[in-house]
């Protein structure tokens, strides 16, 4: 399949899955991976899903309550398989790509958490993501018996004090009960894409990565309107002045009723982008 048409097909699949009744988190993450790795085709996506199935098959059958499930995942994925993270992983794009994390067994907290969630879910565990500020973790069990684990630390069980330290260290804040609720799969995907955009923003030569991360974010049913402005800026930065100007004008139309001054400034930027063609 031609590269452009393959990308278009992959994005259609991403958009359809994101709007399905029960979005498949692992599939959405693998379709993000396909944007970064042109060699990741349908067979590669299937192979990654099979790998998750295989790992789930190695868990004990119904080991017990939330704490026993958390311990079983830590033993399998952390101790036996070596899934964990290091500070150096924050510098690698691969740390945000699920197929790479499955191969390297290294990644960002949120991608390692996706591995934990997807393996545990396949085995029937009461598992979900917990979006602590600055450090994603995994929860097991209902709120009254909730057990938190940190896949970045190999699945270490977290006490309340541990969670407080994680949040204080990453954001300077404190843990609230609202932070401990299950994270929606689409919010997890958006947070992964935000991480990729942040990685690319620190590397201006990788504006290609920033662009596809923004464009995938825009395919999610709910996303910040300002992403359209970010996409427009990236298009102009990459020399696509007409498309960038058109996107700037679209964004200006969206915000004109609530931020007329901003809308005027953005329309000036659109005119400036078109003038670059002269």
Automatic annotation (TrEMBL):
Domain of life from the UniProt record: Bacteria
Pfam families attached to this UniProt entry: TPR_9, Transglut_core2
Chain residue ranges for the region called Disordered: 1-22
Biased composition (Basic and acidic residues): 13-22
Residue ranges of domain Protein SirB1 N-terminal in the record: 51-194
Family named by the database record: Belongs to the UPF0162 family.
Protein name in the entry: Transglutaminase-like domain-containing protein
Species in which this protein is naturally found: Streptomyces rectiviolaceus
């Amino acid at each position: 399949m031609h590269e452009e048409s393959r990308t278009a097909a992959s994005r259609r699949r991403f958009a359809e899955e994101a709007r399905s009744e029960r979005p498949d988190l692992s599939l959405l993450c693998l379709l993000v991976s396909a944007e970064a790795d042109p060699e990741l085709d349908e067979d590669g996506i299937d192979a990654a899903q099979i790998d998750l199935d295989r790992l789930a098959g190695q868990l004990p059958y119904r080991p017990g309550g939330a704490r026993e499930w958390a311990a079983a995942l830590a033993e399998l994925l952390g101790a036996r398989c070596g899934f964990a993270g290091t500070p150096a992983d924050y510098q690698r794009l691969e740390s945000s790509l699920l197929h790479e994390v499955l191969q390297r067994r290294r990644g960002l907290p949120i991608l390692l958490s996706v591995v934990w969630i997807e393996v545990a879910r396949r085995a029937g565990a009461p598992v979900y993501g917990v979006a602590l500020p600055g450090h994603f973790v995994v929860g097991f069990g209902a709120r009254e018996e909730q057990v938190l684990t940190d896949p970045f630390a190999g699945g270490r069980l977290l006490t309340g004090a541990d969670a407080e330290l994680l949040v204080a260290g990453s954001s300077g804040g404190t843990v609230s009960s609202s932070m401990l609720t299950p994270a929606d799969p689409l919010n997890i995907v958006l947070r992964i894409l935000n991480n990729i955009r942040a990685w690319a923003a620190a590397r201006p030569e990788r504006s290609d990565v920033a662009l596809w991360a923004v464009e995938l974010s825009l395919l999610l049913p709910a996303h910040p309107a300002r992403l359209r402005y970010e996409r427009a800026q990236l298009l102009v930065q990459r020399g696509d002045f007409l498309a960038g100007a058109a996107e700037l004008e679209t964004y200006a139309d969206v915000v004109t009723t609530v931020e007329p001054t901003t809308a005027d400034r953005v329309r000036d930027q659109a005119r400036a982008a078109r003038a670059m063609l002269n």
